[in-house]
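sry for the spam today, last one i promise. struct tokens for design, 285 residues
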């Protein structure tokens, strides 16, 4: 089935969708984005994603390209035209097109918007969700505003590739003090030997994960003990369980960190229960 993309006001054939070579996303990574899961036709946590997009734009002093309502309509139209029942929508907003110059272009330059959608075709995420994944830890080389969901992802790309080269699905990024910040495209969690669920608190050190926020509400509603604090690589390696969360990998067990098997090497009971609780509110993968 031919795919359709939305680019700067037009619905176009995906293969013909293009950005100008002077788009600031191309020149500087001067753009922000969101990835929204679609499960059984429903756009999961859509308003939370759009709130974060608006926040990213504000933090980078970029204009809102459209009202939230208008952006939702575009996203739903892309979902409809691409028949996305289970899959992902991608939204990117750039500072616009202007001759290359680091400082902001004039206020007359309009922000650019790209929206695409895809049905999940590979089984990798489902397999990861069922059996768990391996994680490699690497230094966190990113800039300090990781709370902004920018397309400037080179450090994430390098870390993810290092993980792939080591046979791992994700890399956990580690700060200068030996504490895990997050994954290259996911939030990092561990479960202590006393069944306490631990994840790093919100700050500019990490992306404020939408799945993270909603899972925390689920965790609290079910009465689990939870601590928002940083943890070291060693603590994670000796934890009972570990997992990652993101829009496209909700509650995915981590069964190995570097050379260390986590727990008994299988998805742990707390992680399994959280998968069920989360699926009950956000839809199963
Ligand atoms: N990534 N941390 C980072 C660095 C991320 O890039 C992501 C999401 C998350 C999880 O956020 P959320 O729960 O809101 O998806 C945490 C998306 C999926 C991506 O870049 O493809």
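last one done:
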């Amino acid at each position: 089935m031919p795919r359709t993309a939305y680019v700067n006001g037009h619905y176009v054939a995906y293969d013909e969708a293009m950005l100008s070579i002077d788009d600031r996303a191309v020149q500087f990574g001067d753009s922000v984005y969101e990835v929204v899961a679609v499960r059984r036709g429903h756009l999961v946590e859509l308003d939370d994603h759009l709130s974060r997009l608006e926040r990213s734009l504000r933090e980078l002093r970029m204009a809102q390209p459209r009202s939230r309502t208008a952006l939702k309509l575009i996203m739903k139209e892309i979902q409809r035209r691409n028949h996305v029942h289970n899959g992902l929508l991608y939204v990117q907003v750039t500072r616009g097109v202007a001759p290359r110059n680091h400082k902001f272009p004039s206020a007359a330059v309009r922000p650019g918007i790209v929206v695409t959608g895809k049905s999940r075709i590979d089984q990798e995420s489902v397999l990861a969700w069922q059996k768990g994944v391996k994680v490699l830890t690497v230094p966190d080389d990113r800039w300090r505003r990781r709370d902004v969901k920018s397309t400037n992802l080179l450090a994430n790309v390098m870390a993810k590739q290092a993980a792939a080269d080591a046979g791992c699905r994700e890399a956990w990024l580690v700060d200068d003090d030996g504490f895990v910040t997050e994954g290259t495209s996911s939030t990092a969690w561990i479960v202590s030997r006393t069944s306490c669920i631990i994840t790093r608190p919100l700050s500019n050190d990490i992306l404020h994960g939408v799945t993270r926020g909603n899972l925390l509400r689920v965790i609290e509603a079910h009465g689990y003990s939870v601590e928002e604090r940083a943890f070291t690589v060693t603590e994670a390696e000796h934890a009972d369980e570990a997992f990652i969360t993101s829009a496209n990998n909700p509650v995915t067990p981590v069964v190995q960190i570097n050379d260390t098997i986590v727990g008994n090497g299988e998805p742990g009971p707390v992680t399994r229960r959280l998968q069920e609780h989360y699926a009950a509110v956000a839809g199963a993968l």
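The helical segments are 24-28, 46-59, 68-81, 124-131, 154-165, 210-221, 233-237, 269-282. ok im logging off now
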